[in-house]
Structure formats: C-alpha cells, structure tokens
Amino acid sequence: MAHSKDPLHGITLKTILERLVQYFGWKNLGSHIHIDCFNFDPSIKSSLKFLRRTDWARKKVEDLYLDLDYAKKDDLWWENRSNSSDY
To answer: Per the confidence metrics, is the pTM higher than 0.70?
Structure first.
C-alpha cells in the first residue's frame, strides 16, 4: 500500500482548526489569518462552514498549520498540551 505524500492526508479540517485555536487562541489566529470568522464571534462550527466554502481561506489555514509543522507532531503532544484560556 502506497503512502500519501500529502502531509495533511488523514487530518480533518476540524482537527487542523482545533489545533490552531488551541495553540493561538481566536484573537491571535485572527491576527495571523485576517478573516472575519476568526475575529467576530468566532466558533469552530461557523469557521468550518466558511472554510469549506472558501478555498483561499482554507489554503491559508492549511498553510499556517504546515508552517508550524504540526502536521508532523504526534497526537500525544496535543493531548498533553494544556488548553489555552482563549479556546
């Protein structure tokens, strides 16, 4: 069985967004990626709805995730990380 070369293979958009929010918090995530759903009454549900319909915004979120190299981190790291108070 061949392995996918896509570093995001098997990682859902919801997981990516939850990890970024956990790391940055909504306010800082909105500073990195300037889209309204991160800056005005943000929620996972509304952000996912927007990101699934808006390719350019989804690409920015995925690129930030990859730039931070979280796609390669072991999931145990996330389980052991303390929650952000802004999450």
So the answer is: yes
